[in-house]
Write a structure and sequence with these properties.
The protein is α/β, with parallel strands linked by helices and about 375 residues long. The protein has three domains: about 5-70 and about 85-150 and about 250-295, 3-Layer(bba) Sandwich (FAD/NAD(P)-binding domain); about 155-250, D-Amino Acid Oxidase, Chain A, domain 2 (2-Layer Sandwich), CATH 3.30.9.10; about 305-375. The chain is about 30% helix and about 30% strand. It has nine helices and 17 strands. Strands 1, 2, 8, 9, 10, 11 and 17 form a seven-stranded mixed sheet that branches. It has a seven-stranded mixed sheet with strand order 6-5-13-14-15-12-16, sandwiched between helices. A three-stranded antiparallel sheet has the order 3-7-4. Strand 10 (about 130-135) and strand 11 (about 135-145) form a beta hairpin. Helix 1 runs parallel beside helix 2 (about 95-105) and helix 1 crosses helix 4. The longest helix has 16 residues, at about 280-295. The structure holds flavin-adenine dinucleotide (FAD). Flavin-adenine dinucleotide binds near residues 15 and 49. Flavin-adenine dinucleotide (FAD) binds near residues 13, 41, 247 and 279.
């Protein structure tokens, strides 16, 4: 059969992972000439999410970082732990800036085509793979897919609703990112307020939970309103933006089993199971793919290595089986370690000594028992 449309690469889904891969491909002097098709239902997502992450250098998206912090704090009961993050900085990028930055950059390449349509299936083909969407289809040597995120099954979710609030007067300390304030209703989960001041008058205030069940919007609002009332009593503010979402916390594999279809992003297991952070893992994953394509190597999109995956599984086991309260675990980790060590541990870049230092912050009996359970479950 004659194939009408044949591409080198089809990027199925243009969210964080799809756009990241496109960006890194187009940065390469050889791969930027490949015939690329990008398919997504919606190229006008607006500012649907903000991404925060830490870095100790300027990354590829430094020019669109909208805010950075060099201090974080963690609160639980009377504990108020203020931690300098050096050599790292905690950074924020707005979704809309990211999408616009990469699509503007890609517009300079005639070899990149765009189709706004719903993908119906991705199948194996004699050579490469085939993508079928409403109104058309095409083949490619490789398909990089981040679609179907909504079909993920996970026992535990990181779910949240956040408001960007703006006051008339200065009320925030804009130099400190409040990473976790556990002094909120725990709702039989691990729950905290995440407060990121953008200016001294404006901040993202997000109620976040790790639990099996996602809440109704009104339930997040109740806690958010009570928090604002308790901390900024009687001071008027307006809500200028909201974000809501759920990120799977699982070590179960979700990747495609079809040859030449490479799962990326959440579907490519890029999310760190124990924290929900994914942005930097997605950068690592997509840069790794570009390097492998360039060297004509077998593509391997995995970014979490065995040792750190094991720690994730142990922590999830403890949270799922309620062997220890999550707020207690994170409070102890931040109380006994500096931010840089914790960041390295959570980025899978800590060495064994640093791992042991983190583990010694926690009750050995509980973690050892959980580790044995996880080992035998495998
Ligand atoms: C609100 C929110 C905030 C987050 N904040 C952070 C953070 O601060 N730090 C961090 O590290 N991680 C964060 N995450 C986690 C993670 O970084 C994001 O979920 C990230 O967007 C995952 O990238 P992705 O490409 O896998 O999925 P997405 O970005 O969701 O992209 C998937 C794309 O596929 C498209 N698509 C889906 N189905 C189809 C179909 N059938 N046909 C065509 N197109 C389709 C969608 O339109 C979408 O554009 C956050 C997640 C959410 C939801």
């Amino acid at each position: 059969m004659q194939i009408e449309n044949k591409y080198d690469y089809i990027i199925a889904g243009a969210g964080c992972a799809g756009y990241s891969l496109l960006y890194h491909l187009l940065q390469d002097p050889f791969l930027c000439k490949k015939k690329i098709l990008v398919v997504d239902t919606n190229f006008n997502k607006g500012n649907d999410r903000t991404w925060c992450f830490w870095e100790d250098t300027d990354g590829p998206f430094e020019s669109i970082v909208c805010k950075k912090w060099s201090n974080i704090e963690v609160l639980k009961g009377r504990m108020q732990r203020l931690l300098p993050t050096a050599p790292f900085e905690y950074k924020m990028i707005q979704g809309i800036d990211f999408y616009q930055y990469i699509s503007a950059f890609a517009k300079g390449f005639d070899n990149v085509e765009w189709i706004a349509s719903k993908i119906l299936s991705i199948d194996a083909a004699d050579v490469g793979a085939r993508v079928n969407w409403e109104g058309g289809a095409a083949n490619a040597n490789y398909v990089f897919s981040s679609i179907n995120g909504e079909r993920i099954q996970s026992t535990l979710w990181q779910h949240f609703k956040g408001n960007v609030v703006e006051f008339d007067d200065a009320v925030f300390d804009k130099s400190v990112a409040r990473l976790m304030d556990f002094n909120v209703p725990q709702m039989d989960a691990t729950a905290f307020m995440y407060l990121l001041p953008l200016t001294d008058k404006k901040a993202l205030v997000e109620y976040t939970l790790f639990s099996p069940n996602i809440l109704e919007t009104a339930e997040y609002d109740l806690v958010l309103n009570a928090y604002m009332e308790a901390h900024y009593k009687g001071q008027a503010y307006s809500i200028v933006h909201t974000e809501q979402g759920a990120i799977p916390m699982t070590t179960k594999k979700m990747t495609s089993t079809i040859n030449n279809v490479i799962s990326i992003g959440t579907m490519g297991d890029a999310v760190k199971a124990s924290t929900g952070y994914a942005f930097q893992f997605i950068q690592k994953q997509t840069q790794q793919i570009v390097k492998q394509l360039k060297l004509n190597q077998t593509l391997d999109a995995s970014v979490h290595y065995t040792r750190h995956q094991f720690y994730d599984a142990v922590l999830l086991y403890i949270l799922e089986h309620k062997k220890m309260e999550g707020d207690e675990i994170f409070a102890r980790i931040f109380k006994k370690n500096d931010a840089a060590t914790v960041f390295k541990f959570l980025s899978n870049t800590s060495n064994l000594i640093e791992d042991i230092r983190i583990m010694l912050s926690l009750p050995t009996q509980i973690f050892l028992t959980a580790a044995i359970k996880v080992l035998f479950r495998r």
